[in-house]
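Sequence, please.
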C-alpha cells in the first residue's frame, strides 16, 4: 500500500488546488483519485469517507481529512511550513485568510452570470490593487526579508504565490506596481520542488480546469 497522500476531487482546480500546491512545495509526492461521475461521489459519501458529505478529501497518515483549511494546516504542520511558535502561526493564518478572500473571488468568477462578469472582474481588480496586493507588499517592505513570516518559507508564501499566478492570468498588469511581490513569486517559483510543479505535465491544473 502506497504511503503517498491520495487526493479525492474533480479534474479541476477548485478547492483542491491549494492542497496540490502545498504538497508539491513540500516535496511530497501524491496520488489523485479523480471523481468523474456522480456515482464516484456517491460512493465516497455512502462508505463514510466524507464526514460532511463533500470534497476535497485527502487520505493521509491513516486519516481521511476533509475541509480545505484543516487539510492545509495538517500538511503545513507535517512539513514544517507553519512557523516556529504561536505568534508566527497567527501571522501565517492571518495572511492565508487574506489570500483566501481574494482567491475565493477569483475562483468563483467563472460561475458568475455573463451579464455580471465585467462588474465582478472590475471589483476583483479594484480589491486586488487597492487592498490585498498593497497589504502583502507592505508586509514584505516592513521587514525586508525573503518571506512573509520569520524569514522562512511557510504556507502563507506558497498560497500567496499561487494567488499571484491567478492574478496574472486575469490581468498581468495588476502586479506591475508590486516589485516585492514579483520578487517573492520568482523566489518561490525557483525552489526546485515548486519549479518541478510548474512544468508542463505536472499535477498542477491549468486555467479553465
Amino acid at each position: 500500500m502506497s504511503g503517498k497522500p491520495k487526493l479525492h476531487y474533480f479534474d479541476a482546480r477548485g478547492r483542491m488546488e491549494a492542497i496540490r500546491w502545498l504538497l508539491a512545495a513540500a516535496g511530497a509526492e501524491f496520488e489523485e483519485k479523480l471523481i468523474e461521475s456522480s456515482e464516484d461521489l456517491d460512493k465516497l459519501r455512502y462508505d463514510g469517507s466524507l464526514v460532511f458529505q463533500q470534497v476535497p478529501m485527502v487520505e493521509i497518515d491513516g486519516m481521511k481529512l476533509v475541509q480545505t483549511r484543516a487539510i492545509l494546516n495538517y500538511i503545513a504542520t507535517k512539513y514544517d511550513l507553519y512557523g516556529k511558535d504561536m505568534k508566527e502561526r497567527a501571522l501565517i493564518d492571518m495572511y492565508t485568510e487574506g489570500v483566501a478572500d481574494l482567491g475565493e473571488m477569483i475562483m468563483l468568477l467563472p460561475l458568475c452570470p455573463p451579464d455580471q462578469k465585467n462588474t465582478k472582474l472590475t471589483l476583483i481588480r479594484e480589491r486586488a490593487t487597492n487592498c490585498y496586493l498593497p497589504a502583502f507588499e507592505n508586509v514584505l517592505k516592513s521587514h525586508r526579508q525573503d518571506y512573509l513570516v520569520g524569514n522562512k518559507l511557510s504556507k502563507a508564501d506558497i498560497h500567496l504565490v499561487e494567488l499571484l499566478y491567478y492574478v496574472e492570468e486575469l490581468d498581468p498588469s495588476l502586479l506591475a506596481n508590486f516589485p516585492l511581490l514579483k520578487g517573492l513569486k520568482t523566489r518561490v517559483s525557483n525552489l526546485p520542488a515548486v519549479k518541478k510543479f510548474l512544468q508542463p505535465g505536472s499535477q498542477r491544473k491549468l486555467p479553465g480546469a
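The radius of gyration is 17 Å.
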